[in-house]
């Protein structure tokens, strides 16, 4: 079965964006092969805020070459033909996506979307690229919620100081 993978850059102090939604602190390391990273996925899932931010930046999920799904109760699907809008029960929709044949599913940004899917028990792996910077504030990697134990799968350090960590999510949360 396909896996849902939360793959995201985070500051050392646990923020996925700065106080003004900025991401200019994410350094580019030429030794990271992003095409290799993207090849493991054929589907991308994101929350509405992340999607709208991408559009404001003049970008589109189409550039990833994947089938894109956006969780939103407010977006009009007719105005966003490049993505599939999921307007209710995101976790159920993700479970159905995981049953289909294909590559893994990339949960792209959106700490709140991640928290909801994590607490629903549908996130399989967490892949963090820890950027060597302390932001002091911003959008947290994970909003408050249940405690979930993780099991280290892999770690890698890059010349830029970026540390890549991959964890499996335990099957049951800790209360």
UniProtKB/TrEMBL annotation:
GO terms for molecular function: 5-amino-6-(5-phosphoribosylamino)uracil reductase activity. One of its GO terms (biological process) is riboflavin biosynthetic process. Residues 4-163 form the Bacterial bifunctional deaminase-reductase C-terminal domain. This is Dihydrofolate reductase family protein.
């Amino acid at each position: 079965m396909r896996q849902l993978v939360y793959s995201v850059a985070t500051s050392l102090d646990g923020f996925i964006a700065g106080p003004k939604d900025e991401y200019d602190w994410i350094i580019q390391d030429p030794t990271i092969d992003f095409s290799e990273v993207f090849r493991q996925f054929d589907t991308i899932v994101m929350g509405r805020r992340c999607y709208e931010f991408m559009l404001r930046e003049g970008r589109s999920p189409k550039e990833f070459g994947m089938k894109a799904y956006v969780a939103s109760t407010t977006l009009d699907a007719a105005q966003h033909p490049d993505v599939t809008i999921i307007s209710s029960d995101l976790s159920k929709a993700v479970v159905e996506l995981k049953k289909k044949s294909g590559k893994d599913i990339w949960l792209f940004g959106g700490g709140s979307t991640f928290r909801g899917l994590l607490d629903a028990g549908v996130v399989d792996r967490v892949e963090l690229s820890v950027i060597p910077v302390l932001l002091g504030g911003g959008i947290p990697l994970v909003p408050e919620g249940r405690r979930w134990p993780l099991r280290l799968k892999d770690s890698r350090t890059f010349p830029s100081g970026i540390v890549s960590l991959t964890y499996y999510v335990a099957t049951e949360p800790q209360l």
